[in-house]
Amino acid sequence: MKSVNKAETVLTSKDEHEKMTEALKIVEANEMIESIQVGLEDVKLGKVQPIEKLWSELDN
Description:
By secondary structure, the protein is mainly alpha-helical. Helix content is about 65%, strand content about 0%. The protein has two helices and no strands. The protein has helices at about 15-45, 50-60.
């Protein structure tokens, strides 16, 4: 059986779209904050390398 691509459309109100957009921004901001916190914890634990080491490894 051959698969057929079907386009789907969803209509939402402007207010609902704005609420979803704001919610997505909050989720993205929280993910960024968590990533920064993990990075800071890595620095505290010494799980980092100088950037020069990365550049030298990329040159090889």
